[in-house]
Amino acid sequence: MRGEPVINVRNLTCAYGDFVVVRDISFEVNEGEVFVILGGSGCGKSTVLKHMIGLYEPAEGSVSIHGRRLTGAGERERNEILRSFGVMYQMGALFGSMSLMQNVMLPLEEFTDLPREAREMVAVAKLAMVGLDKFAYNLPSTLSGGMQKRAAIARAMALDPGILFLDEPSAGLDPVTSAELDELIRSLSRNLGITFVIVSHELASIYSIADRVIMLDKQTKGIVAEGDPRQLREGSASETVRSFFNREPAHHADDGHCPVPAEEGA
Ligand SMILES: Nc1ncnc2c1ncn2[C@@H]1O[C@H](COP(=O)(O)OP(=O)(O)OP(=O)(O)O)[C@@H](O)[C@H]1O
Ligand SMILES: [Mg+2]
Q1: Which residues contact 180 (CB under 8 A, 6 or more apart)?
Q2: Which of these, 12, 167, 200, 243, is most buried using a 10 Å CB contact count?
Q3: Fold type of domain 1-84+163-266
């Protein structure tokens, strides 16, 4: 059912200066799967994602996408690889002074030479995919939080990427809206075959969307679990992993075994 690896992370060490966040982790993401990076707050989920999309260079190791090495790539190669995926950042706000359509058109302006009418048509089509075509001329502030997230996903899909990276898509949403967003992700995965790499610590969402997960751990700076989240809940030998997966879904996953020191904030 699932395809070949489309992302290869090899012996990756991520650090900010001397501060190592994760050390020597390796994993693959397969074509068409919904792959979730999880773990408590401050464990390095966003850091790993930012390394996977080439925002930061690894301290050690490498990231390859579709068999092409992003780490250390020259400018032209790098730009081609960057075009093959879309990203929604954790703080990935839309530009507030621009309509949804203008927001979705931005990547088309940057990366294509399509004429304006074509850009508009593509933007409206992308908004339709997330159920927001009727709101193309709205400013983001006139929409609910869930609609803004969906618009940000439409913008990430502007260039028809095969891979979408989403950092905490359901953060700050109520459970119903969050479940709707999960359904959108499943639908895009099923209907368009998009590969998703999603950072999350919302258990309900993880069970509903993830084909496979890796769990990062702040203490060991490594991957403490990998696989199907339902199996990890039942069968993991590790107490840390079992307790993470057996938390109540409504419970926040970051108030437990993976505390964030006060000076680092959350
Ligand atoms: N730009 C940065 N410079 C220095 N340290 C950073 C930077 N970004 C993150 N960190 C630190 O790296 C560690 C991992 O942060 P990261 O944001 O990747 O965690 P996370 O798992 O995404 O957390 P959350 O669930 O709160 O989003 C934290 O200790 C954080 O303070
Ligand atoms: Mg994060």
Answers
A1: 146
A2: 200
A3: Rossmann fold (3.40.50)
